[in-house]
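From the shared-data thread, chain only:
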Amino acid sequence: MRMIPLSADWEDGWQLEVNGQYTGSADRRGLFAMCHPWEVSRTGDYAQVTRRVEVPADWQGPRVLSFMAADSHHGREFVPDEWEYNTDVDIFIGHRFSQLLVDGDVVWEMDVAETDTPVEHLCSLVTDNMESIGLFWGPGKRRYAGPRFGDVDDPPPYFDVYHCVDLSDRVKPGDAFELTLRIFDRVGSDVMLPEDVHGITSEEPEDNRARFEMIAWWADLQLLNEQTTAETTFHERIALASISEERPAVLRGDCVEMTVARGETLPPVPYPVWGGIPFPQGALRDPDQVSLTTTGGVDIPVQTRALSRWTGDGSVQWLDLTCVVPVGVRTVLMRYGDQATRVPAAPALTVSREGDLVSVHADQVSLSMREGSAALLERFQAVGGPPLGPVTGVLNQQMVGYTYAHNTVVREVEVEEAGPVRTSIALRGQLDDGQGHVFGRFTARVWAWAGSPLFSLTFRVFQDTEHPVTIVHELLLEMGTAPLGAVSGAVTSAWHGPLSSGRFPELELRQETAHEYTVSGRDQLEAGEHAPGWMAAQGTTGGVGCGVRWFWQQCPKTLTLTPERLTVGLFGKRRHREWLADSGPTSFMTRGEAKRHSLWIMPYAGAQSVELLQQVQQAWDARPHLLNREWFAAARVAGNLSPVDDVHFPEMAEWLRRLVVHESSKDVYGIRDWRETLWCQNYRGRAANALLLYFAGGDGAWQDYFEQTMLHNLDVDTIHYDPEHPDWVGALRSWCPFHTVSGPAFHVNSNCQDQFLHYFFTGEPDSLTEAQLAAQYIARQSGNQDRSARYEGWPLAQMAIAYTWTGDAAYRQSAEAFLDFAHRYTHPRRGAYAEVHGSFSHRGIVPFMTGYLGYGLIRYHQATGDERAARLLVALSEAAVYEASDGNGGYHYSPNPRLSAPHGFLPSANIGGMLAYAYRLTGESWFARQAWLCYRRLSDEVKAFGSFHSLDMSQTAGELLSGIALARQRGDLDGC
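Structure, as tokens:
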């Protein structure tokens, strides 16, 4: 084949001419775009480019012109009944034409209504789920129909992209001719033609129906001597040349300084610190080769275990580290590798088992548990203090006018960890009324630490009944305190008592709402807004303090003290006058729902100050842990990150400060709702985004946001029990009333990364199980998630992350299926994922959705190194800049002109992250400069308006910042 390229350089001989409101320009993809704004066109308007072409005299064979022609207008196969949700339609047929002219004569033309993209459709699973609850569209309605394209069952994603015209009868070897590419308005859009379709849902002037916005693209003009087309794709065009980077300074050595994050909350007693620390690939092989010292060289006993390992070399990826921080220590040195010498811990913590009895003995506390017992704890005591207990759980449920009292029955006691710093004991059993009625399972977990005066108790209950909804009057933990003798009690800043049946029937704190608590005996003693969440019982020989994490936020709650018992009302304890069955519920649980609470318990000998107990509660709410932001960024366990502060990225630091206030201002409090995210069901992984922002900026409010959101998400939003659909267990529910009455989420709300991160960051064993179940559910879905960039990109990201953190090949295989369909639905030449958003007619890039696909591609490429994903990411990044940006770092919301405004947020963070990663993949400064424009645009928005950028649009913000930092280091942003 002989071939003469005619459009390799649009600056070489091509002349642009326009009439009307058209504009035209070329881009780095080799495309020439002709654009008409959302305005009325007039008959005879046009845009065209023209050049002179010479046919060599020695040419043999036919003279065939091959070219690519595409546009954004869609006018084929509109069926109104199938588009009830998206009925904005602006179909112009017979108005505007793509034309090819030779010496002024039209030799080829196509109505722009003849598109190169088929009708999109949604998967039946989503439609069926939505119809089942009558959500959004109601029974019998469909959002999109599909698959449908004439008589073709499975239409090609793109067709008629390339064309060829035989010019043999017009030009001869040795001839020269004038070649013109034109978009021509044969009939202005102000003239209604018989086949036009206009249906607009929004209220707007009638004149808007005459507006005709469109982009047309031309590319790859070739003169051939065969009757064929010379086609190319973005894969063939894009070259990869990754950038080599310097090793971060924090990794140069075998010792790193760690801050005790949130250490300002620590009480003046040795306090346990635990949680996950990421390690870069290859840095640590043996989890036991880690040691801690104070900055003064004093050894701190540690306990470690590998939570995950890097695929390939098997080195530690996430390390769970537990220690007890000495009083006053706020900074420690962590050594790792062959040079880390760990001093053996003193035998201060032992676990023993005799038959069905399991006992824990620490240097400051001891406790025991028994299989088959109604008590979670048989007894516990401080060294030198009186024995206390038992601790039992009671759930009182109302059903058809009766109240059922379910008590905890421990079926299994498992020693999960046995020291030397921490022991972990899991207790599993049922809430049973003893009359054949079981409410559901429970899991309790006890942690005790060597050197610490307190231990923890996490109590998690599940609703496993056949009933869709159960009324829970109260869920109580009852703690025996009779050996203390005459008891005084404290709940805030003062001791009340001693209690006596004559004067104080009981001392009770009630947090009825999130903004009101009272403390009363026979009369009211105190009142306020937010109760700290702890209670203490002080006797003649010792006492016990107990606190619930995030107490007031999960109202209603109670703390009650009588002379012989301290009762924690997790679903608030009823008042005496409320004991009638028809007095109304405290709360309810739907089938398959769970709820957990985390308590600290501190027995002691002698007396204790309320100030210390208050400090313990503050630390319990905050959960201090070890953090070094440079280290966390360098580990790259969640992609590329960059520390954010007022020196390196001051604009982003300000954005984080404003954003966390904005997110928290939308909190809804209560036992079931707190903390549901601003968008439902942890939509688009907002919790994970918050944790990454915490790693970047260090603001403890982001840590709280992550852990609190996951408390809700893992318990309330997750399907824990469904006998009709056992394959749903572990998946998140789709949005629905009360969070829990629909089937599993699909597409963008199917998460597993957040559950994995909760396990890695907190060490909570149950979260690993739920992360695996959620990942397995996503992996079972078809790779065809329907034609939307976010529908393919989101599960692609989840599977890539699951593969990164587990090495399970099934997740990689699932990710590859999503990747294949992402390719299938991306325009093979433009590199744009064109889709519908609010209008049948206006097809194009939806930047925030493309941002989610970019997120998935980045994570997949980081996990596998697959160059297909790399080239697709580069292509999507270029297309977003040229087809969806304002040229200054801003991106429209939608290709639908009625929705093109940013709507109060910008997709610049995720698109900017894609561009920054494309810079890493290609080494081309153009991508770095485009990423910089995104960052500057975000900064300008923060300065002008405050924090408008959404938390759920920040998946690749770390890629954006780290890419900019790299480009600054290499000098590719000089002058910016």
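The domain at 349-622 is CATH 2.70.98.30 (Beta-galactosidase; Chain A, domain 5).
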